[in-house]
Amino acid sequence: MVDLKSVLGAGLVGVTLLTGNMAVAQSYPSKPVRIIVNQPAAGGTDATGRVIAQGLQEILGKPFIVENVVGASGAIGIDVVKRAEADGHTLLFTASIAVTNQAANPKAAYDITTDLAPITLVGEAPYIMAIKPQIPANNARELAAYAHTRELNWGISQFGGGDHFASAQFVNASGAKALIVPFKGAGQAITALISGDIDVLISPPSVIIPQVSAGKVKAVGVTGSKRMDVLPNVMTVAEAGFPGYDQTTWFGMWGPRGMSPALVNSIQQAVVSALKQPRTVDFFNRAATIPVGSKPDDFAALIAKTLTSYRAVAKAANITVE
């Protein structure tokens, strides 16, 4: 016989938990929110995070303060969020580098699949392959041919990032001669390309496009599967002679593990609203970044898929981060 009191009791507990979660979400935020960006200022991740933070501040009515917490290939910033209270007042905004770094580091100090609560995939974009204007190449095939005759200084924002993987894959596929030169962020790397200290850089559109428009660097390839509307004459790396080459970066938001589903969903919905604001739409258009605002479960699935695929790439390209 079914114990009616037990059934009713379980139902009341469920209702109480649901009501409690809804109350938490509705009262959020109750104080300023820290958004930890574990990448240096002036890069694509930082710029995108600040636009989203501004949108959330306007929508939710409390300050959303971006803090750049860098070091240990982004692990220090992740640790700050990992140890924070699960009340949504400390969040992580970063790029797919959080996953690629773990894929390349067998001793990573975090597990992106279990230590944090995935909230939403904010946006995604291909990288742009750019060179200093003096190099006589207009696409990836011509750059590869040029790099067969001399070793090029090839910049990356840091070891283990998505741009490192994208660069290593192209160098291996093309047989280019390249000396990988790591920097402490995309801001430093693009400055080095502009000054001529490096020859090549693969970086997000938000970093490259302004410098292409100013004539300071030359775009020779798009790493995604199709050309960009803002650079219609720039061939993809694949169509320039490297079929199957397809590398993108993405930006996402996480919170500490243990956040209530109602709170996670509330923040995700606020991000979706922020993505629709005219200022955000304009920024994403100029940065050639596609807004997404995915559900938390879909974002979790993407993280797991990316981690698996990049572990294979790290092994094949011998990319190791310690």
Description:
- By secondary structure, the chain is an alpha/beta fold.
- The chain has two domains: 6-125 and 249-317, Bordetella uptake gene, domain 1 (D-Maltodextrin-Binding Protein, domain 2); 128-222, Periplasmic binding protein-like II (D-Maltodextrin-Binding Protein, domain 2, 3-Layer(aba) Sandwich).
- 44% of the residues lie in helices and 19% in strands.
- It has helices spanning 4-26, 44-60, 75-82, 97-104, 140-147, 162-174, 186-195, 205-213, 261-275, 278-286, 296-317, and strands spanning 33-37, 64-68, 90-95, 116-126, 128-131, 152-156, 178-182, 200-203, 218-222, 248-256, 290-291.
- It has a six-stranded mixed β-sheet, with helices on both faces. Strands 7-6-8-5-9 form a five-stranded mixed β-sheet, sandwiched between helices.
- Helix 2 (44-60) links the parallel strand 1 (33-37) and strand 2 (64-68).
- The longest helix is centred in the N-terminal third of the chain and has 23 residues, at 4-26.
Features:
44% helix, D-Maltodextrin-Binding Protein, domain 2, single chain, five-stranded mixed β-sheet, alpha/beta, globular, 2 domains, 322 residues, six-stranded mixed β-sheet
